[in-house]
Request: fold
Amino acid sequence: TATELGDGPPPVPAPAHLVEQRRDSELFDYVGFERRFRGDREEITATLLGRYGQTLVDHAPVLDVGCGRGELLAALAERGVEVEGVDTDLGMVSEARARGLTVHHAGAVEHLRGRDPGSIGAIIATHVLEHLELDYLIELLELAASRLRPGGVFIAETPNPATLVVLGSHFILDPTHVWPLHPALLNFLCEGAGFREVQLDFYSPATELRLSRLDDPATPAWAAPLNDMVDRLNDVLFGAQDYSVSATTPRPT
Reply:
């Protein structure tokens, strides 16, 4: 998950090696790249648990798409949650399995095609969707909607391109990113895949970079419109760097 810009180098928040058609390079050291820019694993896991942990606990069994080494899965398993993961990086899959976790070595769509309809309580994908081509993303969402139980939940976290500093910082830093997903677009795609009760939540504003208001008690009245413009500019440039979509499958009527 992204930290505030200006407080160290911009992180690359997720294992991106989960899909068959990722823009990849045999010469690019993604593991080394991730180690340098991703951030502390324990801190990231704690953040994800704080944001989504209770929802995942309440909607077991859980599938983590692009689970990497399985840090989130392990934390949920410690809370008694039935969990599984899927990832295409064999080394990370092996590490996760060595921890006693059920992790499948496959692409997300490939794995979901083989799952029974209505067999999963929750699916989570953190900083994954921005690595997918559009057709693959749409199929992933449609399969997720059909493989979740009625009332099941799909959670995805991704960089927020509506905050413009994101595009010029950690999004473009990662050459495996395919396309930034505007919150309104992802909301639309989830609805089109059959989800209901789609909710957007926003995280990690770039507060260290925000422009200062004129808030001195002696500030003249003419400064009020200027402060309004500063607030609007801060929201566009230095707002939430990450957002999540939480979408629910239709319940029986």
Remarks:
- The first helix runs from residue 30 to 37.
